[in-house]
Amino acid sequence: MTFQRIAVIGAGAWGTALANAAARAGRDVTLWARDPATVASIAAKRESPRLPGVKLDDRVAATGALADVAHADAVLLAVPAQDLRVAATALRPHLRAVPLVSCAKGIERGSRRFMTEVVAEVVPQATSAQLSGPSFATDVARGLPTAVTLACADEATAAGLARALGSPTFRPYHTTDVRGVEIGGAAKNVLAIAAGISQGRKLGASATAALVTRGFAELTRFGRACGARGETLTGLSGLGDLILTCSSPQSRNFSLGIALGEGKPPEGKLAEGAFTASALAEMATEKSVEMPIASAIAAVLDGTLSVDQAIESLLTRPFRAE
């Protein structure tokens, strides 16, 4: 499994970064963009409008035609979680039986399906896989050291994809615990909103540390209820991604939380956690898993609770053993 020809669907910041990472690993990369202006910009300047100042590797060829990805040995689906079904549906007629790697972190609203479940439903001929972990697009695009997790139910495929995408500065660790990797990526986005609210409300570093720690306990409880492995939840795609996302304004979810905490309108940038929160809270309730922080964030986002009410609800919970 050499996976020499890699296609990346979505030329946003993350898709562009992954295209560069694959090219640095020696792969021949086709980057699909929906916007013709993005394709033209990449062709003329070797630069994506979504990542200004970052040059694309010469091995990356931009296209606006989905038919151009038909000969890929593996496809990275780098679109937002709530757009994944539409993108996969459009891609289906052009795909052979190759790995289709979701690179979004979230749960589909309505269906409450994880990304690999959506892929398996829409593109049954593909082998579903998931890429996740502590990674900012600008770091990956510029070739700064980054480690992630690549999950696939078939271990040989997971290992082959990790080798194909891996380089000295982009290190995928492989696993067969697909659900654990997906839960870490989805839940940490919701918890990052909570951490941002704590900072925006100026509750102090101690409060934020406590919130992230208790949030990780929630993530772990939910993961175990879904059959995830403990080592996955404490690994890169769980604890590692949680630490990164809850500590930097580069995270859109953390920035959304800061805006909510400060009482300001959120910026227009997409924050996956805003869509995932309600689905996560509903799934936790169905499985009788206690997730008070995630549930409070879901309530804030749907207008059921104010930020102050959510904080009060968490601070007045009964004392209990850790």
Polypeptide structure, described:
This protein is of the alpha/beta class. It contains 14 helices and eight strands. α3 (84-91) runs parallel beside α4 (115-122) and α7 runs parallel beside α10 (236-245).
Count of runs of 4 or more consecutive helical residues: 14
SSE order, one letter for each helix or strand: EHEHEEHEHEHEHEHHHHHHHH
End-to-end Cα distance: 46 Å
Rounded average pLDDT: 95
Q: What's the count of strands?
A: 8
What general form does the structure show?
globular
Beta-strand proportion? 5-15%
Computed CA radius of gyration, to the nearest angstrom:
19 Å
Secondary structure layout:
Blueprint: E1 5-9, H1 13-24, E2 28-32, H2 36-45, E3 60-63, E4 74-77, H3 84-91, E5 99-102, H4 115-122, E6 127-132, H5 137-142, E7 146-152, H6 155-165, E8 170-175, H7 178-200, H8 205-225, H9 230-233, H10 236-245, H11 252-262, H12 272-286, H13 292-301, H14 307-315
Parallel strand pairs: 1-2, 1-4, 2-3, 4-5, 5-6, 7-8
Antiparallel strand pairs: 6-7
Helix pairs in contact: 3-4, 7-8, 7-10, 7-11, 7-12, 7-13, 12-13, 13-14
